[in-house]
Structures are given as structure tokens and as C-alpha cells.
Amino acid sequence: MDNNFRKTLKPDYFLIFLNILIVIFYSFIFSAILTFSKNLFLRHFSIIFTILFIYFLAYFPGIYTSDPADQVAQATTSNIEDWQTPFHTLTFLVVLKIFKHIGFYVLIQIIISSILFAWITSKFKIKEIFIVLFFLFPLTSIFLINAWKDVPWTLSLIWFSFLVYFSYKENKINLLAFIISLSFIMLFRYNGIILVPLLLVLMALLFKGKIIKEVIAISISLVFIYFISNFFFYNVLNVKRTELTYSKDFLIISHYVVNNYPFEKKDREIIEGIMPLDKIKERYNCLTVNTLFWGHPYFNIEKSRKYKDEIRRMLFNLIFSDFSTFLESILCSSSYIYNPNQPFNFTNYRSDSYVEFNVKKAKLFMDSKLPP
């Protein structure tokens, strides 16, 4: 066996000892929780929060990839754009204004997550061992300490789902809870506004028309919230409108490029006008658009905006002409869920590099326009 290979196989006794200490620490914490907490909800909350809090400390002050890092920059300079949903950016602004440190954002998020999941698990009287295993699974906890907009959006969707279940089971409707959960689903992601009407229809069908008045009341409230929030974002906060580029569409089309799909001449010219085919093949990663073109000189953002409608038309044609390649790209883009070995952005998940932006943007707090 090669000597260098032998060295790589040599056990790191310090890490082994550290892992033993972590196991002992977890055992002590959970033993204390199970011994002293008689209330099931509080016991489950304590277990979930303890695990998430340790992950939070390990990745302090939480995981900030390019999108949330840019939103933090917008919040601190009072120069907000709607590339990401203004509502999510506003949550950063509020947290920074009150607590003056971005670490509180993820801390508040894990507190809310712990409350939500403890409510669900205590209702179902789930055994503590299954709760521990679920939250010790890295993808669960890493997701929940991420400052990404999809985290509160997913939590809102989970909240709504179990509200429906418990409302049906207990035969009572909490209108305020439904309005808040659906408002979050609508405001944390742009495509949430498409999902909300479908959820309301499914809700009405599930209850077999018994809650038509409640569904109408919720719908009117959501319409009111939508227009009021948009007025607030664009007329009070002066959020800057940005043009759509349909970057996800181009990412899927790039999957066809990598697979050497025979594009029509017109479509090939549009793609090459946005980005050369050889560069697409060189930089393509089905998991993220960041490595493909953002920030690279050979990506023509102006043409991507100019041809955004043609790009969408092209994608629909490709889906109908070669659905298997489309399905392959979707499965690949979500593979980090079922294959933890996928690199994704995990290389950036280090406590000393929790933000992924340039030096100028890293000086967030030096030029902050937030009131003292």
C-alpha cells in the first residue's frame, strides 16, 4: 500500500475523542430534558431546539449563501430590490434594526422551527428517539439554519398542512392561523401566489363545502394583504423593480446543451448569444445557476433579458419533444435531498466563510444606513 495513502488512513485521535465528547454531551442534555420536563410539548421543543442550536453554533451565525447575503446587503444599505421577494428582505431589515446582529435571524428561525415541529410531534405523541434521529440527520438541521427564503416558506407550508389536518380532525377552524400561514406562503416566494388558490380549493373540497364562508373570508383577507403589502413595498419602502431573466429556465435548457440536443438553428443562436455552448458545457452544474453564469464575463445578461420570452417558449417545446431529459435535469437538481454526497454549496458551510460575496459587500455594517 502506498505510504501517502497509509497516512490518509491514519486515524485522527483528537477528532475521535471530540466525537465521543459530543455524544456524551448530547446524552447528558437529552437525559436532563427527559427527566425534568413533564410537558410533552416542552420536552419535544427542548430536544429540537438543543439540536438546532448546536448546529447553529457550529455554523455561526448561520448559513448565508449568495442570495440571502445579497438581501442582507440590501437591508443594511436601504437599497432593496425585488430580485428576491421584498417580504423576505424586510425580515432581515427588521431583525437587524432590532438586534443589530445578523446571527439573530437564524436564531429566531430555529426557535420558530422548534415551536412548529414540537407542536406537530406532541400532537402525534411521537417517540423522542425518532425526533432525535430526524433532527440529527444533517440535511434537516443544515436546512433549518440556512437564511434562505425557502426555509420560512417551507415552514409556512408545513404549518398550513397540519392546520388543515388538525382542523379536519377536531372540526374547528382557526381563521387567523390560516390567514397568516397562507400569507407567508404567498409572500415568501413569488410562485406562492400560484399555490395559494389551489390550497384553498383543496381545503374546501376536503371539508366537502362545509367551510365555504371561511374560505371566502380567508380569500378576501389574502387579496387585501397582497395589495397592501405591494403598496408598502413599492411606495413606502421604494423597492426597486428588477427584470425577470428566467434563470431556472436557462439552467434546464443547459442540461439539454450538455446532452447534445439537436437544437434548431434559431434556438441555437439565441442560446449562444446568451452564453457560448462550450462555456455552458464547461461550467454547467444541475444543482445551481451560480456556477453556470452569474458573475462571469461570457454570460450576456442583457440578451438573457431580451430573449426571456423566447427562452420560456424554447423550454416548453423541449419538454414536449424530449421529456426524459427534462425529468433527468429535475431529478439531478434535487439530488442533494436524497444523495448527501452531492457537493451543492456545502463547501461554503464553514464558520469562517458563512457569507459568499465579495470584499466590498462584506463591509455591510460599515456603511449601514439603518437607524441607530
What does this entry look like structurally?
It contains 20 helices and no strands. It is an all-alpha fold and 372 residues long. α9 (150-170) packs antiparallel against α10 (175-188) and α13 packs across α18 (323-333). The longest helix is centred in the middle third of the chain and has 25 residues, at 212-236. The chain is globular and about 70 Å long. The N and C termini lie far apart (63 Å).
Short description:
The chain is an all-alpha fold and 372 residues long. 69% of the residues lie in helices and 0% in strands.
Helical amount = 55-70%
Enumerate how many helices there are, as a single number: 20
Number of extended strands:
0
Radius of gyration: 24 Å
Elements, N to C (H/E):
HHHHHHHHHHHHHHHHHHHH
From the spread of the alpha carbons, the general shape counts as globular
Major sheet characteristics: none
Q: What structural category do the secondary elements indicate? A: mainly alpha
C-alpha termini separation: 63 Å
User: Mean pLDDT, nearest integer?
Assistant: 79
Uncertain segments: 1-10, 340-372
Fraction in beta strands: under 5%
